Amino acid sequence: MAMTKRNGKLVYLCSTFVAGAALASACAGSQSPPSESAEDVVIATGDPEPQRAEAVPAMPVTPATGEAAPAKNPFEGAEFYRDPEYAKKVDSTQTDDPAVKAMLAKLKQNPTGLWLDRIAAIEQLPKWLDDAAAQAKKKKKPVVPVVVVYDLPNRDCSAKASAGELRVEDGGEERYRKEFIDPIAAEFAKRPDQRIVVVLEPDSLPNMVSNLEVEMCGKSELVYKHSIAYAIAKLSLPNVYIYVDAAHAGWLGWIHNRRGFAKIMKEVLDMAGGTNRIRGFATNTSNYNALEGEWGKKLEPSTPTPNEYAYVQGLSETLAEEGVKGVSFIIDTSRNGVQESRTVWGNWCNIAKAGIGERPKVAPRPLLDAYFWIKPPGDSDGISDPSAARFDENCKSADARADAPEAGQWFPAHLIEMMKAANPPL
Q: Is residue 203 among the annotated active site residues?
């Protein structure tokens, strides 16, 4: 572990652990001496004097001025939307084990996130929304779909496993606006009486806190901020509740990282039209951090947030200091049932010892609008074949399964093991 001084503060340098859809620790594994106060310790990545690529200029953003969604939990008095296509994928899982079959039958009854991860995926959006409306009519109460908007230019700028289709140097920012965000906003606007939840751009703004020394991240800094501000401004409608992705305890849990994120969010929200344009933040998206316990200190003794709920509490306080107040959170519990599933916090890809966590639930505790399965259990984090173009080294870590398909593809072997390790049990 190296040390240096930046702006008069002691900086502990650690390797950059990065994530695709799985979101990884930016600094797990480094240890800050107990003699240094939390205020003076900066958790950082890269070389002592990192050389950042010059940020590419970004398009201006027109702030939203129309009515925003009301300041209430969108899941209250409603049900989660259950995607029939996810149920079909679960049904496709082959097994002769009666116990596993019974678990699969229970699993498919749960709601999951609906991922818009490329422009072509938008064609699915009207079907999802219409189906949710039909379910609502049948149940005589609102049925809320959770749509993951995930196609940022230079997406996952510090990883390979789930890199996106748009590149900043190839007009990606304009395409993101015109071909991705604008059509999504138009579909939402067609249904003013339908409650819709958006989880916005997993693994994006957290990279602007910790990974700007990565060349693609450095180049993307302004485009990331302006693109997400644009998405918030366009998607902030009276029926749409936006939760911006906020990484997880092992990435932004340290006070310096939390403050960095809070400052970025205030800047982005000011561009978008104000803090009222979002409902709050989503954490642990596609990750494995358990809700409770001190297990995080075994992975990194210096962490002030040893579990995901502690992180939400800490981040809420830090955001409020920056003027981002009154926000709520969603925690992804799709794969966080096993507390000690990893040997290194930065390992994020297809963790072999993972187990499914809490079922989706409305308002389970203070600050939380919901536990929710943002990442559909059974979807791979990334391919484990080193010869594949999108192979990421983390998918061959000591904690990862060695038989994984490409990111987003169905991975039944991993799903079965996660069901067996589920906590609470399926």
A: yes
What's the average model confidence in pLDDT over 350-354? 98
| Rg (alpha carbons) of the chain, rounded to whole number | 20
C-alpha–C-alpha distance, residues 306 and 245, integer Å: 19
Structure confidence at residue 52 (pLDDT)? 84
- Quick check: 110 and 82 in contact, CB under 8 A? yes
Per-residue H/E/C for 353-395: CCCCCCCCEECCCCCEEEEECCCCCCECCCCCCCCCCCCCHHH
Determine which one of 203, 245, 369, 379 is catalytic: 203
Confidence of residue 160 (pLDDT cuts 50, 70, 90): low
**What number does CATH give the domain 2-420?**
3.20.20.40
For the chain, what is the mean pLDDT?
Answer: 89
Structure tokens at 147: 């749509």
Instruction: Please give the pLDDT value at position 12.
Output: 32
| Domain boundary assignment for the chain | 2-420
Residue 404 · residue 352 · CB < 8 Å: no
Q: Is 32 within 8 Å of 23 (Cβ atoms)?
A: no
Give the whole-number percent of the chain exceeding pLDDT 70: 88
3-state SS, residue 10? strand
Within a 10 A sphere around the Cβ of 386, how many other Cβ atoms? Answer: 10
Cβ neighbors of 169 (< 8 A, separation 6 or more) are 56
156 is catalytic: no
The answer to whether the beta carbons of residues 364 and 333 sit under 8 Å apart is no
271 token code pair:
């561009």
Residue from 83, 381, 392, 399 carrying the catalytic annotation: 381
- Mean pLDDT along residues 239-254: 98
Higher pLDDT, 257 or 40: 257
Q: Which residues contact 219 (CB under 8 A, 6 or more apart)?
A: 53, 54, 55, 56, 154, 168
Looking at residues 137-151, what average pLDDT do you find? 97
CA-to-CA distance for 301 and 88, rounded, in angstroms?
43
pLDDT at 83: 97
In the prediction, which pLDDT does 34 show? Answer: 26
Ordered DSSP codes for 395-409: GGSTTB-SS--STTS
Tally helices (H) and strands (E) across the chain: 12, 13
Q: Residue 375 and residue 391: Cα distance in Å, rounded?
A: 20
